Amino acid sequence: MIRKLIGCALMSYFIGSINPSQILGKMHGHDMRKEGSKNAGASNAYILIGKSAFFIVAASDIFKAWLCWKLTAYFVPEAVFSGVFGGFFCTLGHMFPVFMGFHGGKGFACLGGMIMGFSPWLFIIQLGIALAVFFLLKYLVFATIFSSALFTGIYWYFTRDITGTGILALMTVMISLKHRENFKRMKEGKEATSRYLGHADEELKRMGYK
Description:
Elements: H1 2-17, H2 20-27, H3 42-48, H4 51-75, H5 82-95, H6 108-118, H7 120-137, H8 140-159, H9 162-178, H10 180-188, H11 200-207
Helix pairs in contact: 1-4, 1-5, 2-3, 3-4, 4-5, 4-6, 5-6, 5-9, 6-7, 6-8, 7-8, 8-9
């Protein structure tokens, strides 16, 4: 089992390291690591390219984490935590991609893929909750961290799997640390708020991107 887990960890990490945000950015003449919010994820694709890029990147990142969850669960069915394990290493690859000097995204969409791997219905429910938190508190960072912590608790409640829960708890910490720059920008008044969805140009100007 150990050998299979190691193989799945490597597979998931390399799949996670494939970054659609950076690929689309290069196609449009941008380096996501150096422009906009300097984050190779869906939100920066929105800032630098537009709405269509946001949906393409978000869907791709969700899919790759879901795929790693399902593949690892298939190859290592004897481990209760195998899906979480595969999704975690995919997220790790997304955050610290070997192909991009270990400077990647922040893991929110990959978290969504893991939730979908666990339960499509839970994905829909948590998406609704995340949107509610986003509009209530105005900043996406709160929805991201809350969603990760909530999924950790829900996973423990339904599985009582200590290993998987521990991995998800570690991922929550990693996601929180990855968002330190967002909190810094919030203090400076340069972080995007929920107004971005309807007033993108005004928000970009306020944030200093235009």
